[in-house]
Amino acid sequence: MKLSPRNPFMGLLPFAWLLVLAGCKDAGFPFPKGELNPYKLIQPVVLYEETVPIDLSSYFENPERIDSIQIFPPTPFQYDPLTHRLEVQREDCRIGLSEVRLYHPKGHTSFLLKRLPTDEFLVETAGPLVSFREKSEQQFHFQLEGEADEVWFYWDNHRIESRYIQQNGNELVLQLPADIPWSGRNHLRVFVMNAGRIGNDLLLPFEDGQLIETTEELSRTDYASMILYFLMVDRFWNGDLTNDVKNTEDDLAPRANFHGGDLAGVLEQLKAGYFDDLGVTGIWLSPIIRNTPNAFHEYPAPHRRYSAYHGYWPISLTRIDARFGDEDLLRELIGTLHERDMRLLLDFVSNHVHQEAPMIQAHPDWKTDLILADGRKNLRLWDEERLTTWFDEFLPSLDYSQKEVIDYVSDSALYWIEEFDIDGFRHDATKHIPNGFWLALSKKINQLNRERSDEVYQIGETFGDRELIGSYVGSDKMDGQFDFNLYWIAREVFAIDSVPFTKLVPSIRSSLAHYGHQHRMGNITGNHDLPRFMSLASGDLGFNEEPGPAGWERDIEVSDTLAYRKIAMLAAFTLTMPGVPIVYYGDEIGMPGAGDPDNRRPMKFGDLNRHEEQLRAIFKELIHLRKSEMSLLYGNWKLEEVSSERLVYSRSYSGKPIFIYLNKSSVSQDFSISLAAFPASYRVVGEGRLDPDRGLVTVAPWSFAILSAK
Questions:
Q1: What is the pTM of this model?
Q2: Which of 142, 212, 420, 628 could disulfide-pair with 217, CB 3.0 to 4.6 Å?
Q3: Cis peptide upstream of residue 531 (ω within 30 degrees of 0)
C-alpha cells in the first residue's frame, strides 16, 4: 500500500494504514542499500506516554521517501506523510518489543518500539539472556540461557531474515549473508524476549566488515569507550594568574567566591599527564560561558551570597568567561585532547539566563512568568511548575513555547560544535525544559553530524523516576542521562554497613530494563549538586542531614578511614557496569564535602596521605582495566550471586568473561569460581586471591576483586 501525500489525514481513520505483517520475519530485502538514510543507530523507542508521537524526520534525513509502514505484531497507527508524524497508542502495543518497518523504493529500514511491564515485574522476574560466544568465518555463535520465544537480529537498523539463523538447543548460529553492505562502522544487534518479557540486548561493533575484538580498535568516537572526568573549572587548577578576578562583596564567603581555576589550568594538567595517567578518555567541563560579574543572595533562607564561579548564571551562551580563558585557549585544549584520542564535553545551560543577559533584556517576553495566576512567585516549584519554574529571582526561566527561543538557544549550542569541534554536551536542568526543545536541538545536531561524519554525545541531568528520566532519552533526543536512581541505592549500599546488596539488584534490573543493557546512561561516583560520598561513608555527614547547612556550619573531614575502602568498592561497581562511567573530580583521592559549595573544594594534587595515594592507584587500575576489556564495554551483564554482604556479577564478550566480586562484610569471603571459564592465564584486580586448586576467590573485607582472562 502506498502512502498518498494527497490525502495526509487518511491515517487518522482507524486501521486505515495498518498493514498486517504476515511473514514479516522474511519479508522484503534483508540488507537494502536504500534511500532512507537514518542519522544514527536507532535505539528502541520506549513507550512511556499513553500516546506516542514519533517524528520520523528526527530519525531520517529523507522521510519523504517512505512508501509504506508496517508494525509487527499488527498494531493500529496513524501517520501523516506531510509532517512525517507517526502515532501509536501504548495500550495497542504488546508488552516487549514491536518492530516498525518503513518501506522505501529500494528496500526497508526498521526501528523498535519498547513497552515495559510494571516495575515490580521488571525487578522480580529475570528475563532470558543471550551472550556472544565466538566467531568463525562469517558465522557468529551465541548462547541462550532461560526460555526465549523470540530472538531478533539486526544489522544496524535492518532486520536479518530468519533463514540466516539456526538454533540448536541453547545455541544460536548466525550466518551473515554474502551481500551484507560493509561501510565503515556497523553494528550487529541482538534482542531476546520470552512471552513479552525483554531479556538483554547485545551490540557488536564492526569496522569495514571485521568484528572489533580488542579495545585498541576503538576510538574516541565510540560511546562505549568513554570514561568521563567531570571537573569544576574554577576549583581544579589555576594555570593563569593574570585572569584572576574575585568578587569583593563584604558578605561573600571565600568558599562561594572565585578561586582562580581556568582553562589554562586544565590544559596544564592535561599536558602534565594527569588525565593520561588516570586513564580517562574524556573531560566534562563545568560551564565556561560568560556569567554575571556580580554576586547575588540566593532565594532560600538564610539568603547566603554566591558568585557565579560555577558558571550556571550565564549572560551569554556563545562567549567564554574571561576568568576562565578565551577562544584560542579552548581550541588548544580541544586539539590537545583530540591528539590524545580524548573527548571534550561542555556543560550547556538552556533552562535560564541571568537577568543581566542582553538577550533577555532585548526580549523580556522570552521568559516565563515569575508571578503565577494565584499570586505566588514561581520559584523552585520543581514538580508543580516543572517546565516554567525559576531557580531564583535573578534567573529568568526561558519560555520554550516560542519558536524564537528554541531557535536562539539551539543555534547557540550548535555554535560550540561548529566553531570548536567539541565532542558533546552535558545539559543542565533537563527536566525543566520541554521535550520540544530537545527534539529541535537534537535534530539540528543529527543533521550536523551527518556533515561531520561524527556524533556529538549528549547527556542530561534529571532528578526523577526512571520514566521521567527515560522520556528525555532516545536517538531523537539525548543519548543518555545520569542514572541517579541507581546511584541513590548504590550510595546507600556501599556507604551504610546495614544496607544489603539485595537492595541494589532490583535497582540494577530496573535500569537495564528501562534503558537497555547497551545503554549510554551515566554512572557517577559523585556529583557537584550532591554531598561527597566520602563524607556519607565516613559518617561525618548523616544521610538524613541537610547537606547544604552542614557544609557551612562545620568542617567535614574523613574521621573513619574505612570510607576509602567503601568508595573503592563504589568505583569498582561504577566502572564495571553497562553505561558511561563518570568520575567526579577529587573522588579518585577521596575528597570529603557536604552540600554545595563544600562539595566543590579546590582539587588536591600534592601532599596526599597514604589512603588518598592508595585510592588513586585503585581508580587508575580500574579505569585502565575498563579501557582494556571489550567485555566491560560491550559485554552482557549477568547476576551470578547476591546476598546481604556478597554480590557477584559477570560481563562477557566473545567468550571472554569477567567476574566482579564485592564483599561488604568485616571478614574475608570465599567465592566459588568455575576455572573452565579461564582456560588460559588470568589476572586479578583488587584485593582478591585466586586458589585454583579449590576453585575459590578470596576477597578481603570491605573490598572487591575482578577476575579476567588475559
A1: 0.95
A2: 212
A3: no
The sign of the dihedral angle between the CA atoms of 333, 338, 340, 346 is positive
**Does any domain span residue 121?**
yes
Q: What is the pLDDT of residues 505-535, one digit of tens each?
A: 999 999 999 999 999 999 999 999 999 999 9
User: How many whole angstroms separate alpha carbon 666 and alpha carbon 690?
Assistant: 19
Residue 238's nearest CA partner among 266, 257, 211 is 266
End-to-end Cα spacing for the chain: 55
* Closest C-alpha to 280, from 229, 333, 223, 327: 229
CA distance 134 to 363: 60
CA distance 664 to 307: 41
Whether the CB-CB separation of 305 and 251 falls below 8 Å is answered with: yes
Distance of alpha carbon 321 from alpha carbon 326, whole angstroms = 7
In a domain, 606, yes or no: no
CATH code at 703? 2.60.40.1180
What digits encode the pLDDT tens for the residues 340-391?
999 999 999 999 999 999 999 999 999 999 999 999 999 999 999 999 999 9
The whole-angstrom separation of Cα 564 and Cα 555 is 18
Interatomic CA distance for residues 187 and 314, integer angstroms: 40
Give the CB-side neighbour count of residue 658, counting CA atoms within 13 A: 29
Residue 487's Cβ-side half-sphere holds a number of Cα atoms within 13 Å equal to 27
* Tally of structural domains, the chain: 2
Amino acid sitting at position 468 = L
Burial grade of 383 (CB within 10 A; 0-12, 13-18, 19 or more):
exposed
Q: Tell which of 130, 159, 193 closes a domain.
A: 193
CA distance 632 to 136: 22
| C-alpha angle 483-281-564 in degrees, rounded to nearest 5 | 60
Query: Could you tell me the residue range of the domain that residue 688 belongs to?
Result: 635-709
3-class SS of residue 151: strand
